[in-house]
Amino acid sequence: MNAQQLSERLMRVAAHVPADSIVADIGSDHAYLPCYLVLTGKARRAVAGEVVKGPYESARKQVRQEQLESQIKVRLASGLDAVEQADGITAVTIAGMGGPLIRSILDAGAERLVGVERLILQPNVHAKAIREWAQENGWAIAEEEILKENDKIYEILVLEPATHPISFSPRELLMGPNLIEEFSSVFQEKWQRECSQWKKIVEAIDNAAETAETTEKKKELLEKIKLVEEVLQGENT
């Protein structure tokens, strides 16, 4: 992978960036995504934010190599602290982290999202945390996508400021309203895998000494298994 040829996962993230955007890529690693967006004319300018020194230096090197220093600013900062008001950011991408970490980044930098028109978020796990954040903070799900690459399944959530209060059902929070509706083969595979794993954990709990913690965990898992199986069996009401 490089700035000219992204992974399929990042190509799909890039596809959701509106034309002529000014993008902040948080947790940019080698800055492949912002470089690609600027090189292809999808973004006018970009900020590549990294909190770790090594990836930050890799991002700076990549931007220099592509001769994009005038269009991409690389900043060593935690989360959305990489964004400055003068940047005029219109779109934010955060890819390759867990959902709870992405949520914590959005929570910590909420004031820096003023003026942002679109969030393109690709959690590796626990996308539910992002849907909960969207519901609580006035962002609507404009699009959702699920894809499989190298035997790993990824979700992409595209959020835009909501024009009315947002409320998701428990199954929508867990599995995604658009993804439930589309009901793709990859979606079905993901949730069959998840259910299988949860059932193994429930079985292990049943074979272990009972505690208040394990009882609560089992209850939580059984509730999720029920939600998922209802959707997989076509009970989408």
Automatic annotation (TrEMBL):
Q: Which UniProt keywords apply?
A: Methyltransferase, Transferase
Molecular-function annotations in GO: tRNA (adenine(22)-N1)-methyltransferase activity
Keyword Methyltransferase present in the record's keywords: the answer is: yes
Source superkingdom: Bacteria
Query: A Gene Ontology biological process annotation?
Result: methylation
A Pfam family it matches: TrmK
InterPro entries tied to this protein: SAM-dependent_MTases_sf, TrmK
Question: What is this protein identified as?
Answer: tRNA (Adenine22-N1)-methyltransferase
Task: Identify the species of origin.
Answer: Planomicrobium soli
* Organism ancestry: Bacteria, Bacillati, Bacillota, Bacilli, Bacillales
